[in-house]
Amino acid sequence: MSPSPEAAAGQRLRVAVLLSGRGSNLGALIAARDAGTLPIDIVLAASDKPAAPGLALARSAGVPVYASDRRRFGKRSEFDADLFEQVRAVDAELVVLAGFMRILGARTVRAWQGRMINIHPSLLPLHPGLHTHEKVLAAGETEHGASVHFVTPELDGGPVIAQVRMPVRKSDTPERLAKRLLPLEHHLLVSVVGLLAAGRVCLEQGQVLVDGTPATTPLVVEVPKARRRRPAPR
Ligand code: GRF
């Protein structure tokens, strides 16, 4: 597939990031944008947790911020509607769920299908949900990784765009796995957002297309050795 008309015209993709915690993935997107390697504008960082450190990070980088609070809303649909009103108000073209711990309603997800991605710390379809590092160790697996997928109403169940992989060591603990995986996640997320910004990846009839061709397996993103060692951006 040739890049989308916007990408071909050199326009920057307008990205909203939803997060609930630390925000290191947002930090990786900001760093790549600032380095000039990712043609995006981060038009909003929004959270369901007003005290999320990721929002402070966004503020310090000059990214517009919206802090919601689930407790203010009776129904989930009202929380979603309020949040996505902000997303629409800034004309976001892509929504990135990066450590966003709220489950969005099916109606919201369907409205953004093909324009909303999530990063998940496992080799999906293995280990959807929480505690992925513990699950990998409990299952005695020899390989772990992370996935970026298009969001569908099924939790962590949408079509996977790309993955990073790493070996599990005998000495690993959940904490060690999480620490070693995080810089790989950052590289994966930046790579996938880059592909979307270039118009090289899209979702069509529930299937991931890469350069216009249906992808039968997720792309495997190779992470340069130097980036594996680099401390996670904060
Ligand atoms: C990452 O491990 C991501 O895969 C998961 O939540 C974590 C978010 O980290 N969904 P951060 O808030 O971006 O630092």
Structure write-up:
The chain is α/β, with parallel strands linked by helices and about 230 residues long. It has a single domain (about 5-230), classed as Rossmann fold (3-Layer(aba) Sandwich), CATH 3.40.50. About 35% of the residues lie in helices and about 25% in strands. The chain has 8 helices and 11 strands. The strands form 2 sheets. Strands 3-2-1-4-5-6-7-11 form an 8-stranded mixed β-sheet, with helices on both faces. A 3-stranded antiparallel β-sheet has the order 8-9-10. Strand 4 (about 95), helix 5 (about 105-110) and strand 5 (about 115-120) form a beta-alpha-beta unit. The relative contact order is 0.16. The structure holds 5-O-phosphono-beta-D-ribofuranosylamine. 5-O-phosphono-beta-D-ribofuranosylamine binds next to helix 2 and strand 5.
Named at the architecture level, the CATH assignment is 3-Layer(aba) Sandwich
The kinds of small molecule bound in this structure are: 5-O-phosphono-beta-D-ribofuranosylamine
- Shape call: globular
**Oligomeric state of shown chains:** single chain
Strand content: 15-25%
Quote the CATH topology. Rossmann fold
- What distance lies between the first and last C-alpha atoms, to the nearest angstrom? 35 Å
CATH superfamily: Formyl transferase, N-terminal domain
**What is the CA-atom radius of gyration, in angstroms?**
17 Å
Helical fraction equals 25-40%
Number of domains: 1
Q: For the largest beta sheet, what order do the strands appear in spatially? A: 3-2-1-4-5-6-7-11
Which class in CATH terms? Alpha Beta
